[in-house]
Write a structure and sequence with these properties.
Length: 455
């Protein structure tokens, strides 16, 4: 049995699927339908266990996003019909842990063919929990956070009202009741909700133990259902060998290449800003902030060629570089994809110089990989929760890639990613930041950043 993860952006697909790679399962993130079909063939042949498809639907109209999600399951799901248990592939609908995007429309489109939606978006490792049907971010109600106010000010942020607005009959399982059950009794309770006609089950979960109990219980279900969650529930499922009926395929060995590391930051969140500041402080690398005005009219703007040259010069010289999208009074969150695509076009001529790419923001990651001609990624490891390491599935491309959602990660996330990629280098380029530090000093910095052992 294999697993299909349907996500609405690239960094989300990676941070949801990385738990399976950590558990030793061959895991592929596909940026399009053709790449997903090839990954499905690999799964059928035993060369992959998990396919994470980025439908790139976060910024679409809800109806368009719903159709993409439903089509992905129709093409890649194996078995259709809510009356029949899916036997060849299970479905995990990855949603943003802060409820961004068209997740409700996508879940509503999947439910008729996939069965009961078991909704548990908590990601305790990143401070996201669910209590009384509401999402909390480090103890703060979601609708009071910067993330929600930036794009959804004035809109409800609780799970029951959002699902019911989409026409789904939902019920809620309170955390106190959840913790009073064994996996088999919880499975029976969920089955009863299915028989009663519920279409969505909202599960309050506040820690990994809650998610683990839910994961174990759902594996015993004989009725049709699918998971709806973030990377939190996915990690608990990844730790359960019973999810798969075959042994783990042999892991992929990382490729290595010397060269500079490019960090692209498309997110404007305060979290990303703090991460950039620490990266600059610890490495001394140069930073370029591209004005949105240049990116809005990139093909015709008189300064485009100059910005392309400014980006290329340090990379051609072998120096690491941080590039960010700026913000101005005309900024609109809805233009994120446009700005990211324009930034990727400025960077595209210089991709051949880099050995490592760190990208913050799903739209920025997808735009950059598209510009580089990379259609799918093989996940390798994780630096910290939500920060995934990958390489192109085409093993002739010697490029190591780190992806991270914009508002995710500790203050050390980008610096930890840089240390990880530098640790993967066979030898640092003369004059680069890594080469200018003694090995003992770099090891000490890695310890401070809580970095895992490099591949």
């Amino acid at each position: 049995m294999s697993l299909l993860i349907v996500a609405d952006d690239l960094s989300g697909a990676a941070d949801c699927a990385i738990g399976f790679a950590n558990a030793g399962r061959r895991t592929v993130v596909a940026l399009g339908a053709d790449e997903a079909v090839q990954a499905a063939h690999d799964a059928a042949a035993g060369r992959a266990a998990v396919i994470a498809l980025d439908t790139d639907s976060r910024r679409l109209a809800p109806g368009d996003a719903a159709r993409r999600a439903a089509h992905a399951w129709q093409v890649l799901g194996g078995t259709q019909g809510a009356s029949t248990r899916v036997s060849t592939r299970r479905l995990y609908k990855k949603i943003d842990s802060t409820l961004r995007g068209n997740w409700v429309a996508e879940v509503a489109a999947l439910q008729p063919s996939a069965g009961l939606a078991i909704v548990a978006p908590a990601f305790p490792a990143t401070g996201r929990t669910v209590r009384a049907g509401g999402v909390y971010v480090r103890g703060v109600p979601l609708d009071e956070t910067e993330t929600w106010q930036l794009e959804h000010a004035g809109q409800p942020a609780d799970l029951p009202s959002m699902l019911e607005a989409a026409g789904l009959r939902s019920v809620r399982l309170a955390v106190d009741r959840l913790r009073g059950m064994q996996p088999d009794t919880l499975a029976q309770a969920i089955a009863e909700h299915i028989r009663s006609g519920a279409q969505a089950l909202i599960v309050d979960t506040e820690n990994e133990a809650d998610l683990n109990l839910l994961a174990r219980a759902t594996l015993a279900l004989q009725d049709a259902f699918f998971w709806v969650g973030s990377g939190g529930l996915a990690r608990e499922l990844a730790a359960l060998p019973a999810l798969f009926d075959t042994g783990a395929p042999a892991p992929v060995s990382p490729m290595r290449r010397e060269g500079p590391i490019l960090t692209l930051v498309g997110s404007l969140s305060a979290v990303s800003g703090a991460q950039c500041a620490l990266l600059r402080e610890r490495t001394g690398m140069a930073e370029l902030t591209v004005p949105p005005s240049v990116l809005r009219d990139q093909a015709l703007h008189p300064d485009s060629a100059a910005w392309q040259a400014r980006i290329g010069a340090p990379l051609a010289a072998g120096a690491d570089l941080l590039v960010r999208i700026g913000r101005d009074d005309a900024f609109d969150p809805a233009e994120g994809a446009q700005l990211s695509t324009a930034l990727a076009a400025l960077v595209k001529p210089h991709v051949g110089h880099i050995a490592g790419l760190i990208v913050t923001g799903g739209e920025t990651a997808r735009a950059m990989l598209g510009a580089a001609g990379i259609g799918s990624l093989e996940l390798l490891s994780e630096i910290e929760p939500g920060v995934a390491v990958a390489q192109p599935s085409d093993d002739t491309r010697r490029l190591t890639i780190v992806t991270k959602a914009g508002a995710f990660g500790s203050e050390h996330a980008l610096y930890g990613a840089w240390l990880h990629l530098r640790g993967m280098q066979e030898a640092a380029r003369p004059g680069s930041q890594a080469g200018s530090q003694p090995e003992s000093q770099r090891a000490s910095q890695a310890d401070r950043a809580h970095e895992r052992t490099p591949l």
